[in-house]
Amino acid sequence: MILEAPSALEQELNPWLAAEARFNEAARRLNLDDGMRKVLATPARELTVHFPVTLDDGRLEVFTGYRVQHSIARGPGKGGIRFAPDVTLDEVRALASWMTWKCAVVNIPFGGAKGGVICDPRLLSQFELERLTRRYTAEIIDFIGPESDVPAPDMNTNEQTMAWIMDTYSMHQRHTVTAVVTGKPLDLGGSQGRPEATGRGCLIVSLQALKRLGKNPEDARVVIQGFGNVGGMAAKLMARAGLKVVCIIECDGAVYNKEGLNIPKLLEHRKETGSITDFEGGENIDKDEAMFLDCDILVPAAKENVITTQNAARIRAKILCEGANGPTTAAADEILAERKIFVIPDILANAGGVTVSYFEWVQDRQGFFWNEALVNKRLEEIMVNSFGVVVEYAQKHNVNNRTAAYMVALDRVAFAVKLRGIYA
Ligand code: NAD
Description:
- The protein contains 14 helices and twelve strands.
- By secondary structure, it is α/β, with parallel strands linked by helices.
- Helix 2 (15-29) crosses helix 14 and helix 13 (372-397) packs across helix 14 (401-420).
- The radius of gyration is 21 Å and the shape is globular.
- Residues 198, 225-231, 249-251, 301-303, 323-325, 350, 353 line the site of nicotinamide-adenine-dinucleotide.
């Protein structure tokens, strides 16, 4: 069989190639030597486990899981665990490195890690999912821990999954260890403010960007793609802060109101009807065109690869706040730069989530919990400061914000590696 070479568009949409392109650009500009480049580009540790799970009907099935620690130079590995049928080791590797850069940009003392199990959670019962989670945890138990690697939820995993992991780990330790995972339920050592954290981070950096561009938040029109955890929270908090959220785009349609949508009512409408469309406080518009509306802030908060070379020239937003991971392909970056769109790159814009995960880990280790106002205040301090560092770096070195964010991150990790020295 002759395999066809991937087309240019397929290559453009490959997130691992995109991550590599951005890494290489930042490493080149930083003049990183070959040795340090190799250290930063290579995951430190990778574990593959194959483990049996008894299904509800008594049959045995064998599942494959991974945990990759890309870097632990600045602290314990940090990163989610995903359950999906198409998880690959390559994907987990790339996502782990992404976490290294994200934690370094906001300067929290974590490295980067990621995990995954190949499975289709829709085909598994709750009991099967629990057994799978517990056995996977037991298989990777020597790898994870509050001081070594701290997992969190990701695609198809949630608070309940984290509770099972925490319990399994604690059973082996013979005492309760809440700090082994973040994203836990509030009653098991979770943090106030965690569900809103990523959306709140998007609001904070968007307000900073408006300020830089000399725009009044009350006049800012916002378009948000995705009305889930990140997009829904960002919409709610942005509307509450006085911005006009004029359009929400979802899988099944888009809704528009030039005066600004009433977000709490739209959330209620979706709860009642299962869709954002036919909302009485707005009009249905073409979901495939909505991303190209004239607006001040566009927040892609749904999935990766929505802004590509095929459509970047049509974006009319002044600010692009990347709530999702990887919404813009590397090849599209140049088009956005030519059009002078102010990009708040994903590793900064959506880092509010991992920042409050860090707070959760700190609170668990202290055994002393903060109120929501304190969580939000500390989140704001970190996001505002990180935004300032990235934007000033971009200006000083005459690079775009994304390259600046990667340069700040790579530089911090490289500095930690140098300071520590190479063992043996
Ligand atoms: P989610 O599943 O809660 O929400 C995603 C929403 O996007 C869903 O409502 C879905 O229907 C919608 N959607 C999917 N495809 C779409 C499309 N083509 N057009 C319009 N809408 C579409 O997920 P989430 O947790 O909000 O995550 C969204 C993105 O943000 C992902 O890229 C995720 O990796 C990233 N992210 C999430 C967090 C977090 O704390 N949840 C943190 C950092 C990054």
